[in-house]
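Training component of the fellowship. As part of building independent skills, the fellow (R.M.) carried out the full modelling exercise for a liganded target. The chosen ligand was 73E. The inputs are recorded below so that the supervisory panel can assess the work.
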Amino acid sequence: MTKNGQTQQFDKAAFKAAVEKHLTTTYATTLANATPRSWYLAMGRALAEFTTTNLLETEKTLAEEKARSVNYLSLEFLIGRLTGNNLISMGLYENVSQAMEEMGLNLTDLLEEERDPALGNGGLGRLAACFMDSLAAQEYPAVGYGLHYEYGLFRQSFVDGRQEEAPDAWRGAEGYPWEVLRPELTQQVNLYGHVEAYTDENGTACRRWVPALTVEGVAWDLPIVGYGNKSVYPLRLWECRSTAPFNLARFNDGDYVGAQFPALEAGNVTKVLYPNDNHDQGKALRLMQQYFHCACSVADILRRHHAAGHTIEELAKLETIQLNDTHPTIAIPELMRILLDEYKLGWDAAWEIASNTFAYTNHTLLPEALETWSEALIQAMLPRHMEIIFEINHRFLQVVEAKWPGNNSIKRKLSIIEEGPQRMVRMANLCVVSTYAVNGVAALHSELVKRDLFPEFNELFPGRLTNVTNGVTPRRWIKYCNPGLSALITEKVGEDWPAHLEKIAELEQFATDADFQKRYMAVKKENKQRLADWVEENMGIELDTNAIFDIQIKRLHEYKRQHLNLLHILSLYHRLLNDPTFDMHPRVFFFGAKAAPGYALAKDIIFAINKVAEKVNNDPRLGGKLKVVFVPDYRVSLAEILFPAADVSEQISTAGKEASGTGNMKFAMNGALTIGTMDGANVEMREEVGDDNIFIFGLLVDEVQQLKQEGYDPYRYYQADSVLRAALDLLDTDEFTPGQPGQLSAIRANLLDGGDPYLVLADFADYVKTHEKIDAEYRDQKTWARKAILNTALMSKFSSDRSIRDYANNIWKLDPVNR
Ligand code: 73E
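Fellow's submitted model of the complex:
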């Protein structure tokens, strides 16, 4: 790496020529006719020439070094735009900016031409993207394996306040400039059919799968560029294609549509990302996606392993496979099938390899998100895998019997197969039984995994269940998205903090420095202005940047309690209109959230917030003190504007429900103060910044559990608290939907008669009181500045570099390989 972080030989004239060449030969346009979009595409292709070369070089080095690597298997990688981020990692941002300027173009504008690749739903997919960035930055040998969805997460718009969904063709008609097709890596994937017994040439009884359908997996690589180094790792995304568009025999029989059936079905497998976050829908096509992903990935891992000259017996020594939640679990029986049926290993030898290769990350305790698949479905689609799952379970239940002799209720509870009218396969149980490590994603969550989800497994396999607290990449989430803050940090602690976030702690000494406070708050103000400009331009709402910017951005889910935030807003509205003594600092409440298309209450909450926003933003009686902004189509590129502009970060899930959260970390790094419950990683953030620099409220996990056990009665809170009552009752009027009362009643009904499953009412009073404290403290700008600076300074633990080092040292046993 050179002094300014440049890892590339950069020849400006050659680069400009390459851009022009792509403009004409790849995109068939002329210099005179080129649109900003064609310039962006041509620039992307010119840059991808560097990354593709380095990707191939990195592959070669790692094979030659016989390095141990991690394979990160995930159905989701929410990578966001690559161009700006890759320029930073390559150390070429300034050079390219200058080159483009010489061609009469503004780099910042060109970067806006890129569509977000939204190949994920929320935190789980975004975590996978941060982890790839940190693996590459620290040169831990890695391949990310995912799916090449034709359509990413739906695009959201609001029509009269209601969410509408549109398909997201993220690659555009021209294709994505950063991706490279790897035809030589194509895999065949089998489906359906039956299992047959046969005797091999040695007289051994064997079994084999006779599939009914074969499809093709085509690999597209996206470059994950190591920050400040020369390594480029592949994010390998599989696209499903049909092997033969026609079944000739059936075609000749005159069955034209039937002959195309395999093509139609195969063409659908990687069409679209399932839009559910923290929810399992159990659709057959989703199981097909999962198997397709696993079959291609496992085959590719074995191909690399052999190409590097290793034997199958050495697999667990050289490769580890991390399962990002249970979505890629079917990779376990897939590897077992290959070892048993293709390599002809005995069960014990195969199990020894497989169970030492896989590790599993649990991301959620929510019962509706724990995956189960019907045995009948697996049996039909993957008959040999079902046999292998039964055998794994059979042997596992013998271990349970040895530990708890004669205890059938424990066996029923731990069994991989759930008995019932429809037998179901519990994917999490299969994972815990078949992997060498299982981790939760924050300290509290991992304790709850051990205590509440898997207590018997923890006894049976001591040491297998551990914690790795999540993190986020400081490259995208500070350096790239907050250039003002980044310049300030660099001035005070030097320029290598993005790769060594520990350095950021040196800012602590400036927290009380009046001059630094001023400059830090000036940067915050600029970032608030950038967001206000976006809102004005895109939504036509005018905002005052002196107001407190209070932001909740995450998927819409009851457990995340956007409706608690809404009730607080309603209480402020009520008090501003009815209590002449009530005073508050002006505040803008921002929301950004997509609801799963089938999640009715979540969509009702979006509608309610939009309706309240409409009224509040136009009500002169409020004197501009209260504004509500629900940004449409919340996505990574919008997050990059929202996080740096926040004064207050809303992290208000019911304690015990949010496994970690990662937005909480991005906000705090960028100097927002958190209002949060003792949930997920909030607990560890409080440990880092100290109780004075975070606003904690609400019931603790054990209090939540106790209250539920005692029999929680939301009406008690409704009757006892007149502010709460006023807020809830507003939802039953036509205040926000003139002439149409009852349009917002579903939320009130869910909270009162529906039993308030996430204890919104129980936490309301403390939440309101804590917001009053925030209001008071914001008025003292010096104190606020000190606290905001301390939040930035004390967040180094939450770099995903630290998370990856924890995985590498404690789970994967992986060493970096420097290029
Ligand atoms: O708390 C977050 C966590 O920060 C958790 O809800 C989320 O994962 C993040 C990263 O660890 C998560 N997403 C899912 N489960 N947990 C999920 C489940 C099914 C489909 C899609 C996503």
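The panel noted the following from the submitted structure. The CA atoms of residues 382 and 646 lie 49 Å apart. Residues 121, 123-124, 127, 276-278, 325, 363-364, 369, 441, 470, 658-662, 680 surround 73E (CB under 6 Å).
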